[in-house]
Structure formats: C-alpha cells, structure tokens
Amino acid sequence: MLSTLSVGATWAHYQLNDPNISNIYRRQLDGNPKPTGSEIEGRSPVERCLWSQWANLRVIDGVLHLFDRAKRAYRLIVPPGKVSKVVREVHVEFGHVGQRRTEAVVRQRFWWPKLYDDFVRNCANCNICAQTKSPAVAPKTPLQTVATFGQDHRVGVDVMGPLPTLRRGNKYILVIVEYFTKWCEAFPMLNHEAPTITLLFLNEWVARFGTPIELRSDQGAAFESRLLEEICRMLRIHKTRTTPYHPQSNGLVERTNRTVMTWGRNPVTVSLSL
C-alpha cells in the first residue's frame, strides 16, 4: 500500500529537513535527552506537541515514529509539508472513499497533530468527489423501503453513458443490481441498443444467477423494446418501470451508478479490460 509513501530514506530526509520536526528528530536519533521547557519555549506548535509526546517517540529504521498505546503500534510522523500529499494519495488509492474511511486508513500508519482537521479540509476540496458525489440532503417526504422477499426477487438495471471511449471502444456501461443482497455488476458495451443489453442480461446474469421475478428499469428505449418484452414474457419475468424523470423510483441502481462513476474517474481502480 502507498508504495510512493513507504520509502524509509525518503521520510528520514523529509523529517530531517522540516523545521518543525528536525530538532526533535535529531535528538531522538542521537540519543540525546528531552529538551527542557525553556529550550522548547517559542518553538512551533508541532514541535511542542512532539516534545509533549517524547516518551512515545522512537526512531525505527532511521524514521521518527510515535507509539500509539491504544493500538499498540508505531505510526510514522508526517511533516506538515507532506500532510496534503499523504491525504491525497490515500484518498485516491482507495477509490475516493469518504473522509472517515480515508482517515481510518491513515491512522493505522501515520500521525501528525490535528489530523482530523486536515482530513476534513482536504477531502472536502477533492474535485472528483465534488463532481461525482451528491451532498446529503434531507428527504422531502418520508421514504419507504421497497419490500423484497429473497434473492433474485427484484433486479434493477440501468445504462450509464455515453462515457469517454475506453480502450476497447466501449462507451456505455450496463449496471445490474440485485435488491435483496445488494450485489451489483457492471458490464462495458459498445452501444446501448436493445439486442446488446438483452444479450448481456441473458448471458451474464440469467445464465449465472437464474431468472428474477421482477426486472425494474427506467423507460429508456432499449428497456421498452419489443425484444426485451418478449424475453421477459418467455422467462416469466415481471417487467416494471420507473416514473419518468424520477430516478428515485430505482434508487438503489442510481446510487450504484454514482459509485461506479467514482471508480471510473479513478485511474487506479478502473479496469484496463473495459
């Protein structure tokens, strides 16, 4: 994990050349005693914070760490000038997950003062998250859970696109979600015509998981086609549709679409096979 953030010699260089850490780092490295209160007076807040944690500091492989007594683990001390780099790289590597999950990952390995405040600020300023994640908004009316009565009772489908052309020429993605287990799969497509969607649904879903009782979609032309209607009739699948211009009617699929779009914008997680 975080290969670019894992080179000990690099971190030792960062700590040695950071004015907030270098004094404490040199003393720990050379085995010198803790500075007195008068010696630390007037120093930066970061250095005074490290001074207060003196008993928990250790130099491991040439890099200054802080011993987390609660987790019984050593956490690498990040110089202030490298905080944004750590937050950004972890946030991107883990697929632009939210602030809390990104923070939890970093807390396992790294430490710096006011870590929480830096995470709130850096994650809030992520342009990709701002473009793909919807802000939390209070519902206008009380919502009700859509009843499902077991696996494959209800399956939702939707098409994303057109997207920037991928390596194999695909411009669309078919998203299929099973409502009971929340299992979802996404399939790249060259087009969003009815034969393409129907064939993918039969070969990639029905052939592996069986026929659902209900198939739910919006009123796109491909989903309203005679071909898909006939397939549903032959397989005894009850075809339902959402209200026009009301994506909340198929909310689970729409939420999955946003997640897939987040992955697609992340060059680390997007599949090269698309």
TrEMBL record:
Q: Which Pfam families match?
A: Integrase_H2C2 (PF17921), rve (PF00665)
The name under which this protein is listed is Integrase catalytic domain-containing protein
Q: In what residue span(s) does the Integrase catalytic domain sit?
A: 138-274
Among InterPro entries, the record links this protein to: Integrase_cat-core (IPR001584), Integrase_H2C2 (IPR041588), Retrovirus_Pol_polyprotein (IPR050951), RNaseH-like_sf (IPR012337), RNaseH_sf (IPR036397)
Please report the organism this UniProt entry assigns to the protein: Paragonimus westermani
What top-level branch of life does the organism fall under?
Eukaryota
Biological processes, Gene Ontology terms: DNA integration
Q: Name one GO molecular function term.
A: nucleic acid binding
